[in-house]
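[recover] target loaded
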């Protein structure tokens, strides 16, 4: 990469991303390499990295999962191999053999499935499968870390002698044990082990009667532990053989170390390959955790991010079950610089950081959380000026520091630079700072740089509106609730909603009005116009969304009706075919019935057979030859159609029976609106009374001599 100040990495919190990636690595060296990730030097090497990570990510969801790549750190072994006449430990040999086998397994796997993993396979093209290292080590050391008996002829002989001598020791000891036991020289504890040697537990009074070497005694002194004389002689011989064995093992391991010493570079290459695979694995796992992917890499200078999430914010919100708002941003030659405005706490700075961090991650070989149709490109430089960067050491104020930063920007900015500036021009007099910010922005524009800035300055919004390759954007704000919506809208400037937010936070209306009078009326009108445009846009978006939903609903309904129509047509065709078939059967049945009647009358077989043959030939002439499979299929279709039709006929017949059986329903009388004073009588009565009062669908009816309460639905107007 051309120019990337450390400040950019710090401003965008890139190191927090690498730390999170390191958590997914399975080896300490892999973790260290993940933390050390930085942007790559050129687009060619970057694309190789991105393709490799993308392939590793894809392996998690298919049946051809990449084998395990775990290994133990071989660095201590490398130091020893550099020293002449040094000898490696047995564990170091096993680790080298294991690493070599792991590399071989990976290389063979990736070669076998190179159509799935072309980039990963290409990484190992310079390496060859080496089976000799593991073979040589396995010939000497078994899987349990023990030296094999056949590692050398001399070792084989020595171990055979040792085994034979151990047998003699056991035999001689058992003989002595039996002898002295019979003489009652031994205690109840007949034998024990001292210094890895079997000894007799002799009663102290008989110690002089037992030939051998005294190895110790009990705490009370009642027992003396003696190694029998015959066994002692064999033990001395065994010690000599064991010493010879250890010397032979040292010789064997020294020879094996000398074999590996010329292969040091290859073994280092193996470890570096496995470490690199571990970093790819960690990046793929991290990508999986944030739903990241590889977008389209554009061959021109263009950055189009769709549904872009801030990675750090997305992960923290995942843990807290909070919603993260994605953003859309588009930088291209005809709209290189975007000026973002809007209220405070509306998401301007986080949008800036999202774009910057995503670009840094991408150029470091890390997949990004965006929509798959997003388009990205390469930038030689990424420059940032974000946050309050007062420098106490250099006695710089915020504004001084930012001016110093702008000086560096002016040196480095070109047509392959991405700059990100938060609250451009702040820290000084608004008018003077705004004017200086405007001319600096014009200079960036003339250099054809790409960038995003956030601002509240009206002059910068106007500049963005006037220049053809600059654009305004705003963070949406709900005018009614005065709450941010965290949605970036390209194409129009945003209002700061200064007075509205102040009113919401309890500032008296009288003070707000006095503030409005102290500033130019044009600025107030300008801000109000922007606010009104934002409100109108929100309404248009809502209307557009509603129309889109209706359109989708209409399209879905149209599709449903078309499918239903096709289904009905298919059923009608099947029903017609069944009807035609049944009609042919009826006609054929009538002809057969006529032949049967004639045969019944004349009893002549020859005419009958002749007529039958003619009838069969006539029918066969109408038939088309079909395959056995087609015949079976037609039979199944006819059966299904006949079954379906039969079921529907049964249902229709049942409905007809129900209608016939059901008694005629009396016509309901129209509802009468009764009121106080109406002459009424009960539906099944003759006495006439008047309604005195109505309450809760019940009326008090006065019959002269008495009153009664009656439900309204039981009364009718008296004629």
């Amino acid at each position: 990469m051309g120019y990337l100040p450390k400040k950019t990495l710090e401003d965008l919190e890139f190191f927090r991303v690498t730390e999170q990636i390191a958590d997914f690595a399975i080896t300490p060296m892999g973790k260290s390499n993940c933390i050390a990730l930085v942007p790559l030097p050129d687009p060619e090497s970057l694309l190789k990295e991105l393709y490799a990570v993308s392939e590793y990510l894809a392996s998690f969801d298919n049946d051809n999962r990449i084998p395990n790549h775990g290994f133990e750190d071989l660095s201590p072994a490398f130091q020893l191999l550099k020293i002449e006449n040094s000898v490696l430990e047995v564990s170091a040999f096993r680790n080298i053999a294991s690493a070599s086998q792991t590399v071989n397994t990976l290389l063979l796997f990736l070669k076998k499935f190179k159509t799935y993993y072309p980039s990963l396979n290409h990484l190992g093209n310079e390496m060859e499968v080496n089976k000799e290292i593991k073979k040589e080590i396995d010939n000497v050391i078994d899987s349990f870390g023990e030296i094999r008996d056949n590692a050398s002829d001399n070792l084989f002989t020595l171990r055979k002698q040792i085994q034979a001598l151990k047998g003699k020791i056991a035999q001689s000891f058992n003989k002595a044990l039996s002898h002295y036991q019979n003489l009652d020289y031994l205690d109840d504890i007949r034998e024990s082990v001292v210094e890895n040697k079997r000894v007799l537990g002799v009663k102290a009074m008989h110690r002089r009667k037992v030939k051998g070497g005294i190895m110790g005694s009990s705490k009370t002194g009642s027992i003396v532990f003696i190694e029998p004389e015959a066994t002692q002689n064999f033990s001395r011989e065994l010690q000599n053989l064991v010493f010879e064995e250890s010397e032979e093992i040292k010789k064997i391991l020294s020879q094996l170390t000398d074999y590996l010493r010329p292969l040091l570079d290859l073994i280092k290459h193996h470890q570096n390959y496995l470490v690199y695979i571990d970093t790819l694995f960690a990046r793929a796992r991290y990508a999986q955790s944030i739903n990241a992917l590889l977008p389209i890499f554009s061959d021109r200078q263009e950055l189009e991010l769709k549904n872009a999430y801030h990675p750090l914010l997305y992960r923290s919100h995942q843990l807290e079950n909070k919603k993260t708002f994605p953003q859309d941003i588009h930088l291209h030659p005809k709209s290189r610089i975007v000026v973002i405005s809007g209220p405070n706490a509306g998401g301007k700075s986080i949008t800036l950081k999202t774009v910057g961090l995503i670009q840094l991650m991408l150029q470091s070989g890390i997949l990004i959380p965006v929509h798959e149709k997003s388009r990205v490109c390469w930038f030689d430089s990424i420059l940032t000026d974000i946050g309050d960067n007062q420098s106490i050491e250099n006695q710089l104020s915020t504004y001084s520091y930012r001016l110093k930063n702008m000086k560096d920007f002016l040196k480095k900015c070109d047509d392959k630079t991405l700059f990100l500036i938060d609250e451009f021009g702040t820290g000084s007099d608004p008018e003077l700072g705004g004017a200086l910010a405007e001319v600096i922005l014009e200079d960036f524009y003339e250099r054809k740089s790409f960038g995003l800035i956030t601002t509240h300055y009206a002059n910068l919004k106007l500049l963005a509106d006037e220049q053809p390759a600059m654009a305004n954007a705003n963070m949406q704000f709900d005018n009614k609730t005065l709450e941010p919506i965290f949605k970036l809208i390209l194409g129009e400037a945003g209002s700061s909603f200064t007075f509205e937010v102040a009113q919401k936070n309890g500032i008296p209306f009288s003070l707000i009005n006095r503030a409005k009078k102290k500033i130019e009326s044009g600025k107030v009108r300008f801000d109000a116009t922007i606010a009104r445009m934002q409100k109108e846009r929100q309404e248009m978006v809502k209307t557009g969304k509603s129309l889109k939903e209706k359109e989708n609903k209409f399209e879905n309904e149209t599709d449903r009706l078309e499918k239903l129509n096709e289904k009905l047509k298919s059923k009608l065709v099947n029903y017609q075919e069944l009807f035609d078939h049944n009609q042919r059967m009826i006609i054929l049945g009538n002809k057969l019935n006529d032949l049967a009647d004639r045969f019944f009358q004349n009893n002549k077989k020859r005419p009958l057979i002749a007529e039958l043959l003619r009838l069969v030939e006539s029918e066969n002439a109408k038939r088309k030859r079909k395959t056995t499979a087609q015949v079976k299929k037609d039979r199944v279709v006819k059966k299904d159609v006949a079954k379906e039709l039969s079921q529907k006929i049964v249902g229709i017949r049942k409905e007809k029976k129900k209608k016939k059986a059901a008694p005629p329903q009396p016509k309901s009388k129209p509802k009468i609106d009764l009121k106080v004073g109406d002459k009424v009588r009960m539906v099944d009565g003759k006495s006439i009374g008047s309604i005195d009062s109505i309450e809760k669908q019940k009326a008090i009816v006065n019959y002269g001599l008495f009153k009664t309460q009656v439900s309204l639905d039981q009364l009718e107007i008296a004629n």
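[recover] notes: Residues 679-717 form one domain.
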